[in-house]
């Protein structure tokens, strides 16, 4: 693995730096004449960031998937109506869109590490108190608190990677994407049996995930309190394709640490007009369409199989297989993406897997159930590809923060109607022909915008050209 990271670093540096620009970047991070030099990078700081990334990623989905496993018990326990339960399943994407917009501004004021730390505290508190508030309003409010923490952390994960590991965007994005996939699948699989082991109480079956979230607070507290973990040399350099030589600036390098202080965060350049970039719009639509496909798959695939005669237990297992596919592929796809000059072919390959899976669900849902589950699991790995592209399509830490907020917030807004529309079509048509036709129709533009987002360019360059 380390050999792969080293080779990735060599390739990235070759694309993004020259022999003359690197010393300038290093001088920027050490200070100029009359300034006291900054301390050398500390291995413990880098190690803590890696641990923090992994633990944070593990906690970005259990609030959602653990609830899905116990939704019937929660409804009965709180006297929740079916319409409110339906609203509850739509709250995550709405919160991701609304609260995610706040992340770049908070990061500039307090530093991204501090904001992620606060996000983990919010997740811990929300998960710990929501099962015991005793009413639907309290449950929804506490869920929103946890989802707010997830939303800001979602946005800032690519920022942390960009600042600490600018030459390893693919490897580190793959690492935390794999952890996120594991954090999605594990609660869905173990929450019900764990609830049984805890005496059958759904409250404790949900609250136990607060303990896992509390673990993620620890490395960020250590990093925020010990800001002596200095910036990585060369951080803030453009990483990924499309970056110009000598792209590093003093402000980028000075704030390279993922737990940079608030004053350092405020020195980040803030002139990028994301909405002027066609690549940013393509990436936002790609993010939204892949999220739509993923939430439709997670919400409706078991029902498709059950309506085709597959037993309920097997249908749940098929969904677990689809979700588990993301664990290894979430690590592999980002690393492959950073080695290619154009990531569009990956988006095409993933989309074709999705189209084949949808066709299979229509023509032979029971006969080829395992094959369709595997193919849709591969198609869902458009998510780690989108995260990787966020890091590759920007030059600076400020750029990746803005692009991450724009692409994810806009994308999650786009994804909200999809699962609901599939339910409406299913209810009114009495079958899966129209819903599968909709899913197929949405996959085609996903392939197109994914190809466009994969082109070798940066949003800063596009925004600057359109501003002239």
TrEMBL record:
Pfam families: MFS_1. Keywords: Membrane, Transmembrane, Transmembrane helix. SUPFAM superfamilies: MFS general substrate transporter. The keyword Transmembrane helix applies. It comes from the Bacteria. The chain crosses the membrane at residues 43-64, 84-103, 115-133, 139-161, 173-190, 202-223, 280-300, 312-333, 345-364, 370-391, 403-426, 432-453. Residues 1-40 are annotated as: Disordered. This is MFS transporter. It comes from Streptomyces ureilyticus. The lineage of its organism: Bacteria, Bacillati, Actinomycetota, Actinomycetes, Kitasatosporales.
């Amino acid at each position: 693995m380390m050999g792969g990271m080293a080779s990735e670093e060599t390739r990235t540096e070759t694309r993004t730096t020259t022999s003359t620009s690197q010393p300038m970047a290093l001088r920027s991070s050490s200070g100029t004449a009359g300034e006291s030099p900054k301390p050398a990078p500390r291995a413990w700081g880098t190690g803590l960031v890696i641990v923090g990334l992994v633990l944070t990623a593990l906690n970005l989905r259990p609030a959602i998937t653990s609830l899905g496993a116990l939704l019937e018990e929660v409804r009965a326990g709180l006297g929740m109506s079916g319409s409110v339960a339906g609203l509850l399943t739509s709250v995550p994407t709405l919160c991701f869109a609304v609260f995610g917009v706040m992340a770049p501004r908070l990061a500039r004021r307090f530093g991204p590490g501090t904001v992620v730390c606060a996000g983990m505290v919010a997740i811990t508190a929300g998960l710990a108190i929501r099962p015991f508030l005793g009413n639907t309003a309290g449950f929804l409010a506490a869920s929103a608190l946890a989802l707010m923490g997830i939303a800001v952390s979602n946005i800032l994960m690519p920022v942390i990677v960009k600042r600490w590991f600018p030459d390893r965007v693919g490897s580190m994005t793959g690492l935390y994407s794999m952890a996120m996939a594991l954090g999605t699948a594990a609660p869905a699989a173990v929450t019900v049996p764990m609830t049984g082991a805890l005496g059958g109480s759904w409250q404790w079956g949900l609250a136990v995930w607060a303990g896992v979230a509390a673990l993620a607070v620890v490395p960020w507290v250590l990093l925020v309190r010990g800001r002596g973990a200095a910036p990585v040399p060369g951080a803030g350099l453009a990483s990924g394709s499309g970056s110009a030589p000598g792209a590093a600036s003093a402000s980028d390098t000075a704030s390279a640490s993922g737990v940079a202080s608030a004053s350092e965060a405020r020195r980040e350049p803030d002139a990028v007009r994301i909405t002027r970039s066609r690549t940013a719009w393509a990436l936002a639509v790609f993010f939204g369409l892949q999220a739509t496909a993923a939430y439709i798959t997670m919400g409706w695939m078991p029902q498709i199989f059950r309506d085709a005669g597959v037993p309920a237990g097997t249908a749940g297992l098929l969904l677990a297989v689809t979700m588990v596919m993301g664990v290894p592929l979430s690590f592999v796809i980002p690393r492959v993406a950073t080695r290619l000059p154009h990531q569009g072919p990956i988006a095409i390959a993933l989309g074709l897997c999705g189209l084949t899976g949808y066709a299979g669900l229509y023509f032979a849902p029971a006969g080829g159930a395992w094959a369709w589950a595997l193919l849709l699991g591969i198609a869902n790995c458009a998510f780690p590809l989108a995260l990787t592209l966020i890091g590759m399509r920007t030059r600076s830490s400020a750029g990746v923060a803005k692009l991450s907020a724009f692409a994810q917030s806009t994308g999650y807004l786009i994804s909200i109607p999809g699962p609901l529309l599939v339910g409406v079509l299913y209810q009114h048509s009495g079958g899966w022909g129209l819903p599968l036709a909709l899913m197929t129709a949405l996959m085609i533009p996903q392939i197109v915008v994914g190809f466009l987002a994969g082109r070798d360019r940066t949003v800063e360059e596009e925004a600057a050209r359109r501003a002239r």
